[in-house]
Amino acid sequence: MRYDLVVVGGGPAGLAAAIEAKKNGIDSILVIERDKELGGILQQCIHNGFGLHEFKEQLTGPEYAGRFIDQLKEMNIEYKLDTMVLDVTKDKQVHAINSTDGYMLIEAKAVILAMGCRERTRGAIGIPGERPAGVFTAGAAQRFVNMEGYMVGKKVLILGSGDIGLIMARRMTLEGAEVKAVVELMPFSGGLARNIAQCLNDYNIPLYLSHTVIDIQGKDRLEKVTIAKVDENRKPIPGTEKEYEVDTLLLSVGLIPENDISRATGVEIDGRTSGAIVNEAMETNIEGIFACGNVLHVHDLVDFVSAEARKAGLAAAKYIKGQLTNGEYIELKNGFGIGYTVPQKVRINNIDKGLEVFMRVRNIYKNMTLQVRDGENVILSLRKPHVAPGEMEKIMIPKSKLELIKGKEIVVELVGGDK
């Protein structure tokens, strides 16, 4: 089998990338999805709030996915469901398998990696205690409740205030469960401010910051969870323990980009994002292999995933047509307060109007200025009244500003304000 473009993953990133490549003149496209339907994680996100940027209206997850699936089908873009990609080689050969076609070797001129992310589990964070039934990741519980029709529990505690955890606090309440509390290790929430307001405050569910679970008890089913306050080193403080009699513990303790295939291929991974290191074209260190969406870095909003995926789809189309050019790289370095930036490096000659940079900050800061500088020369400066790790920031650096850069790197940092 031969295609111009193979997209690994049929979630929101893969769909948007494939559609954009098709719009830019690439007809031979295959989307490979391991699930039994397109749409990815959106299919189990039945709450609204999706599409405000993309469609200027509120949609549920399945509605949002449905619009892209309809476009994909109208454009006659080929896709394979229930198909597992086993390997992607550096020369862009894709090894895949399913029950209909058997083992497939697919040759491509370009590959877009759009595999999404997975949840951290109890084992990944090492919670002590017994191992009863009733401990779920928040996403697994969401699938059970929203798609499979199973209620996972009646008395619930949630560890982690990421967006999935917050949304499941509301969802479980609406299904008749009693959500005792949401417990967060950090001194700030990892979720969007709107989700704290709509999912916790509106339902009088308490949020305990700087707390964590220190013990799990239960013989067959979960019976009791003990939490405690933590100090500045995130160690439990003796004497602050609090016990909850619950039958369910949901874990919303972080998402990890799904990069097993990327690593095996030889794609360079950024230790800060756990995703690929990419350039302005969303291209990895392997020529012709691109990455976008949550496989690259974890996003807050699916609208931003779609926008980023379109960039990857356009760039892959340009690459296939020989329109991407090589040039000198400028590295993006992170100064005070910045956890990471995507992309991590840039060739100015491939930029049309400007460079969009996504980033997350390390802590909550107020009244800061976000600066981009070339040595001592400040090329861009933006006031930021409030920034938090739970909400991704993005800036646009105009090409005219980039062309003024004299050095081999630029620094993105927060200056001034209340640290």
What does this structure look like?
The radius of gyration is 22 Å and the shape is globular. It is α/β, with parallel strands linked by helices. The chain is built from nine helices and 25 strands. The model has no long low-confidence stretch (mean pLDDT 96).
Considering the protein shown, what is the CATH homologous superfamily of the largest domain? FAD/NAD(P)-binding domain
Q: Provide the CATH architecture of the largest domain.
A: 3-Layer(bba) Sandwich
Number of domains: 3
Care to count the β-strands?
Answer: 25
User: What is the overall pLDDT average?
Assistant: 96
Which class of secondary structure composition applies to the elements? alpha/beta
The total of helices stands at 9
Topology:
Blueprint (H helix, E strand, L loop, with lengths): L1 E7 L3 H12 L5 E4 L28 H14 L3 E3 L3 E5 L4 E6 L3 E12 L3 E3 L2 H4 L9 E3 H11 L6 E5 L3 H12 L3 E6 L9 H8 L6 E2 L2 E7 L6 E6 L12 E4 L2 E4 L3 E3 L2 H6 L23 E3 L10 H19 L9 E5 L3 E5 L2 E2 L7 E8 L3 E10 L2 E11 L5 E6 H4 L6 E7 L4
Parallel strand pairs: 1-2, 1-6, 2-3, 6-17, 8-15, 9-10, 9-15, 10-11, 18-25
Antiparallel strand pairs: 4-5, 5-6, 7-16, 12-13, 13-14, 18-20, 19-21, 21-24, 22-23, 22-25
Helix pairs in contact: 1-2, 1-8, 4-5, 5-6
